[in-house]
């Protein structure tokens, strides 16, 4: 019983981390090299949030798989996707936050694909055979 409570608490913390990361990645998605926050380079898009998603989403899944039961490893990835889609479409105040260009696809792919691969690796059965 004590382990289940600890697992639930840890998954709740990892789910909150996933939701916060999704919010930050979504809000920094329109970032450009325009001289305000980043150096000026012809106002080129800077999809830094996609790089952050590619690193953090699989990391959350792997940590969830290692520290809790393997079936709970799906929670951070699902929370990240749900937060990204709900907040991106409904947005604060009813605004649509998702951009209608390649950066949105890059963010979704950079977070979901490595996260799904990490999830598949953590859910794969471990065999004791060696070649």
List the helices and strands and how they pair.
Elements: H1 2-27, E1 32-34, E2 40-45, H2 48-67, H3 74-90, H4 102-123
Antiparallel strand pairs: 1-2
Task: Write down how many β-strands occur, each being a DSSP E stretch of 2 or more residues.
Answer: 2
Order of helices and strands: HEEHHH
How does the helix and strand content classify structurally? mainly alpha
Number of helices: 4
Broad shape:
elongated
| Major pleated sheet | 2 strands, antiparallel
Cα gyration radius (Å): 17 Å
Indicate the proportion of strand residues. 5-15%
**Sheet with the most strands: spatial strand order:** 1-2
Share in helix: 55-70%
Mean pLDDT: 86
The number of domains is: 1
Spans of 5+ residues with little confidence (pLDDT < 50)?
A: none
Distance between the termini: 39 Å
Transmembrane segments: 9-28, 48-65, 77-99, 105-126
Keywords: Membrane, Transmembrane, Transmembrane helix
Protein name: Major facilitator superfamily (MFS) profile domain-containing protein
């Amino acid at each position: 019983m004590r382990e289940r409570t600890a697992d639930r608490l840890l998954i709740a913390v990892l789910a909150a981390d996933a939701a916060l990361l999704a919010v930050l990645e979504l809000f920094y998605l329109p970032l450009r090299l325009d001289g305000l926050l980043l150096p000026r380079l012809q106002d080129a898009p800077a999809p830094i949030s996609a790089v952050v998603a590619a690193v953090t989403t699989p990391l959350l899944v792997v940590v969830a798989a290692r520290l809790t039961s393997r079936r709970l490893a799906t929670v951070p990835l699902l929370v990240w996707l749900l937060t990204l889609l709900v907040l991106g479409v409904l947005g604060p105040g009813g605004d649509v936050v998702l951009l209608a260009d390649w950066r949105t696809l890059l963010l979704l792919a950079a977070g979901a694909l490595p996260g799904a691969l990490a999830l598949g690796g953590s859910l794969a059965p471990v065999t004791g055979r060696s070649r």
